[in-house]
Amino acid sequence: MSDQLVFWGLAGFITLSSVAVVTVRNPVTAAVALVINLFLLAGVYAFQGADFVAAIQIIVYTGAIVVLFLFVIMILNLDPEHLRSPRPRIWEHLVLGVVIAGFAYIGYRFLDSLDVGKVASNRLPDNTYDVAMILFSNYLWPFEIVSILILLAIVGSVAIAKKPK
Amino acid sequence: MGLTSSELPFIVDLIATLSKIVVVFLIGLNVPPIMLWVERRVPALMQRRRGPNRVGFFKWRLWGLFQAVADAIKLIFKEEAVPAMANKWFFHLGPVFSVFPAFLVLSAMPFGEYIEVMGYQISLVAVQVNVGFLFILAMAGMAIYGVALSGWASTSKYTLLGALRASAQMISYEIPLGLSLIPIALVYNSLDLTEIVKGQSHFWQWGIFLSPLSFIIFLVCMFAETNRTPFDLAEAESELVVGFHTEYGSTKFAAFFLGEYVSMFALSLLCSILFFGGWHLPLLSRENLINLTGSVNLAALVGVGVLFLKAAFFMFLYVWVRWTVPRFRYDQLMKLGWKFLLPLGLANIAVTAGILALNF
Amino acid sequence: MNPYLPIIIILGLGVALGLILSGFAHFLGPRHPTPAKEEIFECGVPTVASRERMSVKFYLTAILFILFDIETVFLFLWAKAFRSLAWFGIVEVAVFVLILVAGYLYVLKTGALEWD
Lengths: 165, 360, 116
Hints:
The complex is a heterotrimer of chains A (165), B (360) and C (116).
Chain A: H1 2-23, H2 27-47, H3 51-76, H4 80-83, H5 90-110, H6 117-120, H7 127-137, H8 140-161
Helix pairs in contact in A: 1-2, 2-3
Chain B: H1 10-46, H2 66-77, H3 88-107, E1 114-117, E2 120-123, H4 132-153, H5 157-188, H6 193-198, H7 207-210, H8 212-225, H9 250-275, H10 286-293, H11 296-322, H12 330-357
Antiparallel strand pairs in B: 1-2
Helix pairs in contact in B: 1-2, 1-9, 1-11, 2-9, 3-4, 3-9, 4-5, 5-8, 5-12, 8-9, 8-12, 9-11, 10-11
Chain C: H1 5-28, H2 35-38, H3 57-80, H4 82-109
């Protein structure tokens, strides 16, 4: 019973904060809403027993990627008036509502059941070790490809940000 | 984050957890006043002057300890000047992001193995995480938002620049911090802090002997993450006034202060736990101590005292370094983080893995 | 008992503490706003409300931070399974790290981390 409560409670707040990210007018507020969203999502992962994934969700996503977003917002440093997008019209609200309802419906159709307790109760004691063993044996090739992807990202970002000589 | 559910009955567990949380908060709230006093008396003594020693009750001066009380009262009742153009929400919320990560890190620190109350074994850590290191890194990441949002909310060019520089500094030193923790995880084969202290029961197994380079890197990163001298350019008085918290008065300033000192204390505890044996005394093993005192609880108490003594040394080190070493220039600071500590950290991991691999 | 309860409680208490401290300042202090007090502090120089662009180096630092943070996270994962993976794991991770070191050397060579 408490499993259901925790999950659906978290899910509700996650949805609220995601809607806030897209609808709020001030970009810094949107970034903070994103932080809350990702934090709660890490909570969902932790609740399902994926503690390692929850930890790196916070370290990488919340602690690095949103910091990047915030840096960009702060660097660009626009006038307060320019920061705000115009008030959304009624039809924009309606579209958002329809999209959310659509996703909820798709989710409902594809779920086996609404009982989340089943997944949470299969928690294994040492998630990090299991993830490590699987990653370095079965998923070795994707792991090495990740390093190439990171290399590409490094080269790309330097290319974008460097002043041309 | 990999919390092991305990085998205690529910009500015992609940009471134990709640009391541990209360203890963590009490410790956290008491550190800044003590540090306030240390920060003023110790440099005074180093500089051959007296420091504040006037505030007292009925001629009972207590070497200036009451100064902290006076400061606190003054801070609470001061007027708060909010800049006109400031973003109201983030201005008021900024300090919050500095406070809660510090307390979360403090709550993940183990103070001992366990105590026995009424036949139940209660572990001496408020938040028991299997992935202890990752939890600490995660909270270090959250502390960045306090700096960034507060500087942004004040809408002053200089606080914004100070905030950006302080944030960039914090993220630049988070990587060597993580890299320096990996050899410790390799050597003690665990990410859990309690396990790591258990692996240091003998003097020669202390982290500083098994991984000295990690200690040095960690020490430097410890200073950089808390924005303390010699890395405090972002809040140096001669630079951008006080940097990102220029516009913050009275207790909001106290909130930043609180966050900074609590995270300093938590990192000092972490340093003692990882490198100096935590709650173990150098020559007296825990079993001997239990036999000597005849009680597990007394041994645990001694352990807590030892741990706090070691952490107190690092807090003293913070103050000592602050008044001894000149400040780094910002570009020197970033160069140190990216060009020196990062490769050093990677090399450290390679060497440690190589040495350990010889035992396969 | 839900094992995540302590984290949630401490998080809540920490946020409450921060809010209370902020609230003290807001509600307990006297409030006499004058134009001088409400101005931003710039050492006596009248505020120029210009909005300059900050350096792009912050952006580059943040991106490099993300990438090396990901590397650090994978290294933690490896550290956990180090003894079980033995030499095979070491070789794997060595390849991973070497590719990233190549990227790091590229960054050094193009001088992207120079700070004036």
